[in-house]
Amino acid sequence: MSCFEITHENLLARTGLLKTAHGKIETPFFMPVATKGSVKNIAHGQLRKMDIDCLISNAFINYLKPGLSLIEKAGGLHKFMSWDKSLFTDSGGFQLILDHFNPKITEKGVTLTNPFDKSRELISPEVSTKIQNSLGSDVAMVLDHQPIFGKSRANYLDSAIRTIEWAERCKKTHDTNENKTNKGQLLFGIAQGGNHADIRKNCALALNKLGFDSVALGGFGIGEAQEDMYRIIREVKTVLPKNNCTYVMGIGSPIELLNAVANGADCFDSAYPTRMARHGKIFTHGGTIQINKSIHKDSFDPLDKECACFVCKEHSKAYLHHLFKTYEQNAHILLSHHNIHFIAKLMKQIRIAIKEREFDKFKKNFERGYLSK
RNA sequence: GCUGGUAUGGUCUAGUGGUUAUGAUGAGGGAUUGUGGUUCCUUCGACUCGAGUUCAAUUCUCGGUGCCGGCC
After folding, report:
1. Do the beta carbons of residue A115 and residue A100 sit within 8 Å?
2. CA at A279, C1' at B40: how many angstroms apart?
């Protein structure tokens, strides 16, 4: 029984329903990143109001702090963080490209530096899966070998092969685990291979044979040309079942989301919208603006005249500029809210456009405004 | 009244008798995507005024002015 069902199609784009133990999520959708069990600067209540149906947290970080015993005592990560909608957990694979974790890869797994006390931790496919079983997320991700962007073809092939081996061990661990906090937990594989379509396709095929609930695409958003990413999404989809929930990991800019959906992607996560907000970069229908720049110092207009979020209804750019420049915490709270609202609204409009068979028209219209600068 | 110190981008600073005068911050532009208010790239922007010495003064001398301090 598949966890994913397609409801409407419009060219390569489609809408669907992803079924998890905590409800059905309408696709395509975007998950804000809640690494430590919280979307930075946004309260759960605000996320619910913005129609955010799913978050993604990080297995490795939660495992280090506050630790599994406390989260198990709370009754799982959902209960610990009081989030009753769907929840993904990332395996820790993304940490493999971050220098400050100083990753060392062996056949066993990867050793990473614990950022809290600088000790070294071994994360194997088995360990990562057991952590996620214990956290009880609705969708667990396999531990993948995320390659560093720009390496040789041999390097990408090597990481794809290791990713398949590790994925098999994750699957085995997941299938035999008797103590799942969440009995309905799904497990997604992650296809690697960079911009090499043949490696990507073979990796996706091998993963599909292992029987994952879906196969995701990893390793994007770290340097490749956007056109390459869209091409790879198209190519990989040709070898996967139609009802594979195609999760493109790590993507979060408006134009990339729009184009990834246009090529058949269903699901996304990224720290981009919230991180950009913390850096003062704001999404608007007329393109991105930088609220820290003095050009906004005396503008009493909202961030985005077409936006219905409370930040745009109540506050001027001059005020937000002032908060940002004086390091007031509310700057991050308000700007993060706006950026996530913008993305949530975009995804909703995308779903409506697909259902009404007007996706291409919507896309062109959005791009005309967003890229007008 | 007498006297010591000081004066360099918007702000804070380094340094020098001679080519393109440091660095930080700021301002403009760009990047940031499955932990981080992070970090990085790029552009702009200054020698207090007057006189003197000198081939040449932002630099040395004298004076003016501003600022900080000490003494009667």
Report:
1. yes
2. 14
